[in-house]
Specification:
Layout (H helix, E strand, L loop, with lengths): L1 H9 L3 E5 L5 E4 L1 H7 L3 H4 L12 H16 L3 E6 L8 E10 L5 E10 L1 H12 L10 E6 L4 E4 L1 H7 L3 H4 L13 H12 L4 E9 L5 E12 L5 E10 L1 H12 L4 H6 L4 E5 L5 E4 L1 H7 L16 H16 L4 E8 L5 E12 L5 E10 L1 H23 L3 E5 L4 E4 L1 H7 L3 H4 L4 H5 L5 H12 L6 E8 L5 E13 L2 E10 L1 H54 L6 H26 L6 E4 L1 H12 L7 E6 L7 E4 H19 L4 E12 L1 H5 L10 E10 L6 H4 L17 H11 L3 E6 L5 E8 L24 E5 L3 H13 L3 E5 L2 H10 L5 E5 L7 H11 L5 E5 L3 H7 L7 E4 L4 H11 L5
Length: 883
C-alpha cells in the first residue's frame, strides 16, 4: 500500500478511491489539483457534489455504482467536460474486494488523453499525408465476398489483400462464431448499423487479436444497399491493459507492469532501480538497462540534454517534461515524451524520481511532415505572382510575399488582428460578405469579386479576388487569391474617357460647324438689316417720328449680331483680337462691374494673384467668359444666402491633370494661368453636368442656353481647358486654364486723344460678294459717301472687272463665296497688281482671316454685320496713303 501511495501521489494520472457508498476516501495530488482542493475538503463527497448537474460527473458516478453492483471492471473513454472544453480522457474503474468477496472499494484511474485525441483528429485532417490508416477497413458485397481490404486489415489479421479479396468472410470466423457473422449480416443488410462490437479474431499465424468493429450498410446513389462496410481497430492492448489492471489491483508493480506506457523509478543515489515491463518490451532489453544502463539507449544527439535534465530533477526536485529519441527494439530511434516528478515518503522526504515514458513517434513524424508540407506550401505561395492570404473573417492567418509587395506592409503588420480588413475599401466589404453568404448557402463554390485595397503609400489598388473554403490548423477559414488589376482598370477608365472625349469632340465639332454656318449666313442678313437701318437714319431728318422705329430696328439687329457672335465663339470662329493680358486685372474689373447685378443674398469673395504671367487672348471674349461664370454662380445661389468665390493664380498642369479637364484636346504640360469661380449654390447632378456645355441647353426658365456653350468655344479658341467640380447640394466650381505666355503683361496704354476724321477722298471701290442683299446695301452705304461702286457676284466676276476697269482704288472682298473664294481671289488680284488694296469681309472672325492672310499686305478686315459708320471707318483707313 505504501508503494502504491508513492506511485499514485507522483503519477500524472488522476487516481481516486471510492467506498461502497460512492464517497471519496482517497485522491492523489493530480486529482486534487484538477479541482483545486485538498484531500481533507473532498473526502466523503460524491462526484456530483462538486458540480451538481454536470453530465460528465454524473456519468462517472453512475459508472462507479455499476462496478460496485456488478463487481466487474469498467473503462470509460471520451470527452471530459469537467476538465474543460476539448478535454478527453480514459478512466479505468477497478473493483477492490474484501476478504468475504464483496466489493469494498472502487479504484478510478483517469488518464488524460486530450493530446492524443487531438493528435488523432489532426491525423484525420492530414489524411493526404498519412499514406494509409492503421484501422482495418473492409467492405463486402451482398453475398459476403470481400471487395476491399486495406493495409490496416493486413496488419490486424495477417492476411494480405491478395489473399482476402474475393473470398467470403467465413474464413475469418471460428465455426462456433458463424452465428455471430450471420447476425451481423442480417442486421446491416436490413439497414441497421452496429458500433464497437468487441470480440476476438484469429490471425493467419494462429494468434488471437481483439478488434472493436463497427458495421454499416453501403449504399449506391439511389440509396439501395449494395454491401457492408466495416471499420475495426485493434484493441488487444487496451483489453489486455484493462485485464491486467483488474488482476494487479493489489500491487502497484503489477499495475505498472501492465500499463501501456513505460514507468521507471530511481533512488536518491540517481540509479534507476525499477522499469516496468513496457520499458523492456519497447527496448527489447533486460535488467542491464537498470542503474545507468539506460543511457546507452538515448540518441547521441539528445544524451547531453537528457542527462542535464535528469540531474536537475535531483538537484532541484520538481515536475519535468522532456522529449527525446529512445532506441526501439527494432533498432530504430523513436520519439518519446517523458514526465518525471519527485517521489516523497510519508513525511515529505525526497526518495528519488518516478517517471513515465510515452511513445509519440508517429505524432512527431506527422507533425514534422505537416511542418515540411506547410514550409513547402509557403515557398510555393511566395513564388506565385498572385497575392494570397488566409482569413478567418476578422484577421489574416497567413499572407504571401506578393501580398507584402503589393501593399507595402510586412507580413507581421498584415497578420495583426483586423489590420488587413481595415485596408479594404469600406464600400467593398458588403460585396465580400454577400459572396461569402452565397458560398455558405451552397450557391457558389468559389466566390469571385473585385475589391480595392489601400497600400502603405496611400494608393488604392484594384484586386480581382477568388475566395474558397479552406482548412487551416483545424479551423474552417477562407483562402483568397488576388490579381492586381489596377493597370487594367486604369487603362479601361482611360479608354472610356478617350471614347467619351472623342464623342464629345465630334459632337462639338459638328455643332460648331453648324453654328458657324448659321452665324455666317445670319450675319449676311444682318448686314442688310443694320446697313439699311443705318442708311435710313442718315436720310431721315432728326425730327422724323420714324427715327425711333429705325433705332429700335438697329438695336434689335445689334442684339441679333451679339447672338451670332456667341454662336461663332462656340464654334471656335469668333472674333479674336489677340494681345498680352493680365488675367487678374481683367477679372477684377469685371467682378466689380457685376457686383450690382449678382444676387443680393450672395457674398463675393476675391483672391487675385498680382503679377501673374501674361496670357495671349482677346479681352472682350474673356470678359464674356467672366460675365457668364459669375452670373451663372449668382443664379445657382438664387434667393438663398451663399458665397461666390473668384480667384486667379498660376499652376503647373501635368498631362494627368489635363486629362481630367473638359475637352483638353491634347494640351501640353506646362504653366497655366487659371480663373476659378466657385459658388455654394444648389450644385448639379452628373446628368446635368454632362450637358451644360451643349448649345441651347439650360436649367433657367428664361435662359437662351448659349452662355456656357460660348464659354467653351472661347476657351477652346484660346487653347485652354475647363475643369468642373459639382455635386447636388454642394455647389459648383469652374476652373478656366489658359496657357501662360511669359512675363507679366504691360499696363494698359492711355487712350489716344480723339481727332476729327479726315474727309473721305474720292475713290472707285469694287464690292465682291455672293449675297445680293449685302452687295446692294453696301453699294448704297458707299455711294452716299461719294464713292464710285462696282459690283461683282463672285471672285471670277470680280477679277474680270478688275482687269477691264483700270483705276479701282479699293476692293471690298467677301471671304466665303462659291466657285472662287476670297482667298483665291485675293491671290489672283495680287498677281494682277501686287499693290492692290483689299478689305476682307466675313461672317467669321478676324483671327481666322489673320491666320490665313498673315504677311500678305491685307488693307483691313471688317466682320459682318457692320453699320455704315463702321464700314466707312475701315474704308478711310484703307485709303490712307502708304508710308
Amino acid at each position: 500500500e505504501r508503494e502504491f501511495r508513492t506511485l499514485a501521489e507522483n503519477s500524472p494520472d488522476l487516481i481516486v478511491r471510492f467506498d461502497d457508498d460512492l464517497r471519496i476516501i482517497y485522491a492523489n495530488p493530480a486529482a486534487l489539483a484538477s479541482v483545486g482542493a485538498d484531500l481533507r475538503s473532498v473526502a466523503g463527497l460524491r462526484p456530483t457534489d462538486f458540480q451538481p448537474g454536470n453530465t460528465a460527473l454524473e456519468r462517472w458516478e453512475r459508472a462507479v455504482a455499476t462496478v460496485l453492483e456488478t463487481g466487474q471492471s469498467l473503462t470509460l473513454e471520451g470527452p471530459s467536460e469537467f476538465r474543460g472544453p476539448g478535454a478527453y480522457s480514459q478512466t479505468h474503474l477497478i473493483p477492490e474486494f474484501a476478504e468475504d468477496g464483496s466489493v469494498a472499494t472502487v479504484l478510478s484511474i483517469t488518464r488524460d488523453l486530450t493530446e492524443l485525441h487531438r493528435t488523432a483528429a489532426e491525423n484525420a485532417r492530414l489524411a493526404s499525408i498519412v499514406a494509409f490508416s492503421r484501422d482495418a477497413m473492409v467492405t463486402t458485397d451482398l453475398e459476403g465476398r470481400i471487395t476491399s481490404w486495406n493495409r490496416g486489415a493486413e496488419l490486424a489479421l495477417g492476411y494480405t489483400a491478395a489473399e482476402a479479396l474475393g473470398r467470403t468472410t467465413e474464413f475469418l470466423f471460428e465455426p462456433e462464431a458463424l452465428p455471430v457473422r450471420q447476425w451481423i449480416r442480417s442486421r446491416v443488410l436490413a439497414g441497421a448499423s452496429i458500433e464497437d462490437l468487441e470480440r476476438p479474431w484469429r490471425r493467419k499465424d494462429g494468434t488471437t487479436v481483439i478488434l472493436s468493429s463497427s458495421y454499416f450498410p453501403l449504399r449506391n446513389p439511389a440509396g439501395d444497399i449494395i454491401g457492408i462496410g466495416s471499420v475495426a481497430r485493434d484493441v488487444t492492448e487496451r483489453v489486455r491493459d484493462r485485464t491486467a489492471l483488474a488482476e494487479s489491483e493489489a500491487r502497484f508493480r503489477n499495475l505498472a507492469d501492465s500499463a501501456p506506457i513505460m514507468i521507471w523509478t530511481a533512488g536518491p543515489d540517481r540509479q534507476v532501480d525499477y522499469m516496468s515491463r513496457a520499458c523492456f518490451d519497447f527496448t527489447g532489453r533486460g535488467d542491464e538497462i537498470l542503474g545507468e544502463g539506460w543511457t546507452e539507449l538515448i540518441h547521441p544527439d539528445d544524451l547531453s540534454r537528457v542527462l542535464d535534465e535528469y540531474a536537475r530533477g535531483f538537484e532541484h526536485p520538481g515536475f519535468s517534461t522532456l522529449r527525446y529519441r529512445l532506441r526501439h527494439r527494432s533498432g530504430e530511434y523513436r520519439w518519446v515524451v517523458e514526465y518525471s516528478t519527485p517521489r516523497l515518503d510519508d513525511q515529505g522526504g525526497f526518495q528519488g524520481l518516478i517517471g513515465t515514458v510515452i511513445d509519440i513517434h508517429e505524432t512527431v513524424l506527422a507533425q514534422q511532415a505537416i511542418e515540411r508540407s506547410e514550409a513547402r506550401l509557403r515557398e510555393l505561395l511566395d513564388a506565385v505572382s498572385a497575392a494570397v492570404w488566409v482569413s478567418d473573417g476578422a484577421s489574416a492567418l497567413f499572407v504571401n510575399a506578393e501580398m507584402e509587395r503589393l501593399t507595402g506592409y510586412s507580413r507581421d503588420e498584415l497578420m495583426a488582428s483586423g489590420f488587413l480588413a481595415s485596408l479594404i475599401a469600406a464600400e467593398d466589404i458588403p460585396v465580400m460578405l454577400r459572396h461569402f453568404e452565397r458560398r455558405r448557402g451552397g450557391l457558389e463554390q468559389v466566390s469571385r469579386f473585385t475589391i480595392r485595397i489601400s497600400t502603405r503609400s496611400g494608393e488604392l489598388r484594384h484586386l480581382r479576388v477568388a475566395a474558397s473554403p479552406f482548412q487551416f490548423d483545424g479551423r474552417d477559414v477562407t483562402i483568397l487569391s488576388a490579381l492586381d488589376t489596377t493597370d487594367l482598370v486604369r487603362a479601361e477608365e482611360e479608354r472610356r474617357r478617350l471614347d467619351l472625349q472623342m464623342q464629345q469632340t465630334q459632337k462639338l465639332e459638328s455643332l460648331g460647324v453648324l453654328a458657324g454656318g448659321i452665324a455666317h449666313d445670319f450675319n449676311n442678313l444682318l448686314v442688310a438689316i443694320l446697313g439699311n437701318a443705318g442708311l435710313a437714319l442718315m436720310e431721315l431728318p432728326p425730327e422724323s417720328p420714324a427715327r425711333q422705329t429705325v433705332l429700335a430696328i438697329e438695336t434689335a439687329a445689334q442684339r441679333a449680331a451679339e447672338l451670332t457672335r456667341q454662336m461663332l465663339a462656340y464654334s471656335g470662329k469668333g472674333r479674336f483680337v489677340i494681345e498680352r493680358l493680365n488675367l487678374s486685372r481683367i477679372v477684377e474689373e469685371m467682378a466689380h462691374l457685376l457686383e450690382v447685378s449678382v444676387s443680393k443674398r450672395a457674398v463675393l469673395k476675391y483672391r487675385f494673384v498680382p503679377d501673374l504671367p501674361a496670357i495671349e487672348g482677346d479681352a472682350t471674349q474673356l470678359r464674356q467668359v467672366i460675365m457668364n461664370l459669375i452670373t451663372n454662380a449668382s443664379d445657382a445661389i438664387g434667393d438663398r444666402s451663399g458665397v461666390i468665390s473668384i480667384a486667379t493664380g498660376l499652376m503647373y498642369a501635368d498631362a494627368a491633370y489635363l486629362r481630367t479637364a473638359y475637352m483638353d484636346d491634347g494640351l501640353s504640360e506646362g504653366d497655366y494661368v487659371y480663373l476659378e469661380v466657385a459658388d455654394t449654390g444648389i450644385g448639379m447632378d452628373p446628368e446635368t453636368a454632362a450637358r451644360i456645355f451643349d448649345p441651347f441647353f439650360t436649367t433657367k426658365f428664361t435662359g437662351r442656353g448659349l452662355g456656357l456653350a460660348a464659354v467653351l468655344g472661347i476657351v477652346r479658341g484660346h487653347r485652354g481647358a475647363i475643369k468642373l467640380s459639382t455635386a447636388p447640394g454642394r455647389g459648383t466650381t469652374f476652373t478656366i486654364l489658359l496657357p501662360a505666355a511669359g512675363s507679366p503683361a504691360p499696363a494698359a496704354p492711355a487712350p489716344a486723344p480723339q481727332t476729327a476724321p479726315a474727309p473721305l477722298p474720292p475713290a472707285v471701290i469694287l464690292v465682291v460678294d455672293d449675297d445680293d442683299t449685302v452687295r446692294a446695301v453696301t453699294r448704297r452705304m458707299l455711294e452716299l459717301s461719294g464713292f464710285t461702286v462696282l459690283l461683282a457676284a463672285d471672285g471670277a466676276e470680280g477679277l474680270a472687272l478688275y482687269r477691264e476697269r483700270p483705276g479701282i482704288d479699293l476692293v471690298l472682298l467677301d471671304l466665303t463665296m462659291p466657285t472662287m473664294d476670297g482667298e483665291e481671289t485675293f491671290r489672283e488680284l495680287r498677281r494682277l497688281n501686287p499693290g492692290v488694296r483689299v478689305i476682307l469681309t466675313s461672317g467669321y472672325s478676324e483671327q481666322d482671316a489673320a491666320e490665313r492672310f498673315a504677311g500678305t499686305g491685307l488693307a483691313g478686315f471688317i466682320q459682318k454685320p457692320y453699320r455704315p459708320q463702321d464700314l466707312l471707318e475701315k474704308v478711310r483707313a484703307a485709303l490712307q496713303p502708304k508710308p
